[in-house]
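ARCHIVE CARD
CATEGORY: sequence design from structure
SOURCE FIELD: tokenized fold
FIELD CONTENT:
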């Protein structure tokens, strides 16, 4: 497994407050890693540490398999909190400042980036007159200017209207698929994040409580009829013969999950019992993604 970012027990303490608590994160190369937590959970602080904008109190960080962080961070682009833009300048002028700051001699780099992030037609329009989505795209353009291999984005769709959210989503997918850029992204819009993320990390009160991939998330949330029986093999035969159900699995001993004909649960129970299967427990399981995330985060608002 090749990791772009790997941390071990990264901790940040401010006075008596532990903002980040022994976080061990694994961001695989090519992933879009959705970083999820309530406001104040430690997402931004952790991202700032990885980007080199804050120092950890303790812990280890590896970037691209190296502990030489200063040189490795050249390969990172980041947009953490609000993008630092010159409001009275155009998008082109803002990128021109960045080009000179980074010592990039190719003067056509600005036009290419404007085209890439969809701002080529903004002309003389000042940034102060941009929509929130346009400002976010320009901020991402600045983060991309040195052609990073790893992009860190803190709430890039926060405050955007539906059209702006779609624009940013399509841009991030384009970066990941066409440029093979690995992305670490935090967002409180969980349904939208689930449309792009391939991996997830859940942070609660500064601690990373779980990591899992998109397939595992879908499996956990998938609606099903869950039954606990004494004879799974016999139950499987009855499901296939009586109902022609092939969509089921046995995730653990004596437990079956049925993904088809969920409106026929009473009839399924009846046939299983008539067939000699003892049903110890049965219930509908699974929930929507936001409900599942809220359960992991401890409920409440302010994700």
């Amino acid at each position: 497994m090749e990791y772009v970012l790997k941390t071990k027990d990264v901790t940040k303490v401010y006075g008596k407050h532990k903002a980040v608590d022994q976080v061990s994160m694994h961001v695989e190369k090519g992933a879009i890693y959705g970083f999820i937590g309530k406001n104040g959970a430690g997402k931004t602080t952790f991202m700032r540490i990885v980007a080199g904008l804050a120092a950890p109190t303790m812990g280890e960080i590896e970037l691209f398999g190296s502990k030489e962080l200063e040189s490795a961070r050249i390969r990172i682009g980041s947009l953490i909190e609000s993008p630092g833009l010159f409001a009275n300048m155009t998008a082109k002028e803002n990128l021109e400042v960045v080009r000179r700051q980074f010592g990039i001699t190719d003067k056509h780099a600005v036009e290419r980036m404007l085209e890439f992030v969809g701002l080529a037609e903004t002309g003389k329009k000042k940034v102060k007159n941009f929509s929130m989505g346009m400002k976010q795209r320009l901020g991402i353009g600045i983060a991309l200017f040195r052609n990073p291999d790893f992009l860190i984005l803190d709430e890039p769709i926060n405050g955007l209207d539906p059209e702006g959210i779609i624009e940013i989503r399509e841009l991030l997918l384009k970066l990941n698929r066409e440029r093979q850029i690995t992305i670490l992204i935090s967002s409180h819009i969980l349904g939208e994040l689930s449309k792009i993320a391939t991996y997830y990390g859940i942070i609660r009160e500064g601690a990373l409580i779980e990591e899992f991939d998109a397939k595992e998330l879908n499996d956990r949330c998938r609606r099903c009829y869950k039954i606990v029986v004494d004879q799974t093999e016999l139950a499987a035969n009855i499901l296939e013969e009586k109902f022609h159900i092939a969509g089921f699995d046995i995730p653990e001993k004596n437990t079956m999950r049925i993904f088809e004909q969920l409106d026929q649960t009473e009839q399924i129970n009846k046939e299983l019992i008539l067939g000699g299967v003892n049903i110890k427990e049965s219930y509908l399981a699974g929930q929507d993604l936001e409900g599942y995330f809220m359960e992991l985060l401890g409920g409440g608002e302010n994700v």
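CARD ANNOTATION: The longest strand covers residues 3-14. The mean pLDDT is 91.
SHELF: design records, drawer C
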